[in-house]
Amino acid sequence: MSFEHAPVSKGLMVGLALSSILVGVFDVKHYFHLQLIPHISRHFQYWRLGTHHLAYSNSSDLFIAEILLYNIGVPIERQFGTLKFASFAVISTVLATLLEFAALILFHRAGLNYIPSGPSTLIFNIIYQYSRIVPPPTPSAYLASRSRTKASRTSSHSSSQ
User: Fold this and answer.
1) What is the CATH number of domain 7-150?
2) Interhelix angle for 82-106 vs 7-25, to 10°?
3) What are 125-160's pLDDT values in tens digits?
4) What are phi and psi of 114, to 5 degrees?
């Protein structure tokens, strides 16, 4: 599989990797998580709403996101088309930002005060689209292949006797 006809997925992967590496190298990870108290409510740092989707704060999240973008994002972009996939990514990220901010405000009393950095919501939206587009394997196809395998084993076993 390659990045042919998938420039947005390639750009997402390269941009996410570079930004996450630079955030780690320059030790500014603490600027990328989303926290209601004190950052947003007390210090009015609303810029965090937009920047927390730009980079992951640890390498394991980055690695999983890169694998998922390569294996799932590229086929979805090819299916949608580049412009539609780019629009989907932007709208998904904007809606996720609004919903995360609303969740922080509504569920603060229940203990929700912190959302880790990274575009995890975009990754999960792409996974959801993949589950809607790619059909599940049918049991009949699996059973048919198993019965053909059994039949070929039986015929080869009886012919050898």
Assistant:
1) 1.20.1540
2) 40
3) 999 999 999 887 777 766 666 666 665 555 555 555
4) -140, 130
